[in-house]
Write a structure and sequence with these properties.
Elements: H1 19-23, E1 32-34, E2 37-39, H2 42-50, H3 56-59, H4 67-72
Antiparallel strand pairs: 1-2
């Protein structure tokens, strides 16, 4: 694969110097609707998948990195182990 002349890597990170990199991070406020549920960010969707159904309404609208925001919704650090196919 050849890189076009003048191309530069894109830093996708919530604290990126580039706006496009911040907007592409999981924590960015980029609301979307999936199966009738409005999520505030991709991170909210990922967290929604692993929390109890009782906590899902609090988690879905969240966005940002503020640990206190996620804790208020009742989220704790969680790890997911996926089995190999």
């Amino acid at each position: 694969m050849t890189t076009p002349a003048g191309a530069a890597p894109l830093n996708i990170w919530s604290r990126s110097d580039e706006e496009i990199g911040r907007l592409m991070s999981h924590f960015a406020h980029t609301p979307f609707v999936l199966d009738g549920v409005t999520f505030g960010s991709v991170e909210a969707f990922y967290t929604w998948l692993i929390v109890s159904p009782a906590r899902r309404p609090k988690v879905a609208p969240l966005w940002g990195r503020a640990r206190s925001t996620w804790r208020r919704a009742g989220c704790r650090r969680t790890s997911i182990t996926m089995a190999a196919p």
